[in-house]
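tmp note - glucarate dehydratase
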Amino acid sequence: MSSPKVTDVVVTPVAVMDPPLLNASGVHQPYQLRAVIELHTDAGITGLGEAYGDDPTLANLRAAAPFLLGLDVFDLNALTRRVEGALVDGIRTEGLTELIGVSSREKSVAQTVAAFEVACYDAQGKATGLRVCDLLGGAVREAVPYSAYLFYRWAAHPEGAVPTGYPVDDWGGALEPGGIVAQARRMVAAYGFRSLKLKGGVFPPEAEAEAIAALREAFPDHPLRLDPNANWSVATAVRVAPRLEGLLEYLEDPTPGNPGMAQVARATSLPLATNMSVTSFAEIPEAAALGSVSVVLSDHHYWGGLRASQRLAGICETFGWGMSMHSNTHLGISLAAMTHLAAATPSLGYACDTHSPWQREDVVQPGALVWSQGSLAVPAAPGLGVELDRGALARLHRQYLDCGVRRRDDHAAMLLADPSWTRQAPRF
Ligand code: GKR
Ligand code: MG
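out:
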């Protein structure tokens, strides 16, 4: 078998409708941006990947694309070298997706490699008849558990934020414990999730602790998590965390940075998890030295891909850290990649995060990703096991062109509803 070589790289930005989910930065915009990557090869095989779709990410992907022509899809070290070479000058690091820690050149390279690496793996799988999880070392689980991702939210985006005819979803608002419990009941009934995560950092910590207590009462056997996205000061987190002991399986990013997280860690027996203070290999030594975290949420999109995520898994094992998986809004290509990675990573023991229940639009054909009891079965077809829905891709690209959103800005979206709103970090 000769290895497929890349003959063309197509990067297509898309916009998908998103509900008004509240978080520490503000509120989700009516559209979230993603980029769909197609690596065409001389074997007639096309590998699929998915990335953020903001302007800096697109600029980096497009800068790297010409350097991939002729690349052997099995030569992932060459992929890394080529991307690094392509992005030597003019790399975009500013304005990248929020809430995933500090921006850096290293992380922008990692994000760019990751997007193409997933597409290479998909092409490898299609060329060999193997699934991506098999290429990653073999599946240790054929069903990957995910957690329900609960959000405080409004019923609809504020007036003026959406075009005429923008359809409101039927989840309604959730601004107090009763609303969060109702949201959890619906999500558990629809998907069978067996663990629950509440996005916090929106209301004062005491109010969010009440929501956690209400969830515990309604779901006595479901592990619970709370993620204030570093919107609590160290003093607040030191005060509140001990009250959550016995209620949470972990507390995610209560406060910013490893030094602050370490102070909180010393004040509570709760495991602290992060996708904000440990977001690249460069941040690991500080976290290890300070003892700031005990669970790291991986995310192949910014750790550098599937292989880099498995390297991270090894490091987590070395330090005795647990491993979970972070999610931003994503589509089916990424969900398939996350599922293959989790299936092939033995120490990824916590249920993964996913925004899937909030997404009403996708670029993949339905049927490949099947939910059962809160888990996704690893797709059976070669590669990622998902196929592009070309009609949907064209429609969502049109939506991208028309919607005017070019980067994620939850703060600006909040200002439309409350012009006096200010971002304070941390707010509580
Ligand atoms: O979608 O609002 C959101 C989340 O807050 C997301 O942006 C975070 O990156 O889910 C993420 C997290 O766990 O921090
Ligand atoms: Mg988080």
